[in-house]
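Project standup — Tuesday

K.O.: blocked on the structure for the chain from last sprint. Re-posting the sequence here as requested.
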Amino acid sequence: MDAPSPPPTQTLTPANDGPPISEKGQAALMTLARLIGRQIAREEFARRMAAANAETDDTSA
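H.V.: unblocked you, prediction finished:
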């Protein structure tokens, strides 16, 4: 087995290490997330309805 790699020599900065988002920005972000979630739900519902209502070739002759 390979030996574990040594710890990094430089300090890693977190990706979210920025200034906090404003109230207006937070509200816009939440609105966008809600709209995207609804669109995904609509698409998933349509996909499942299409699958449930699809005609199958399982009929016996």
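K.O.: great, moving the ticket to review. The chain has a mean pLDDT of 87. DSSP finds one helix and no strands in the chain.
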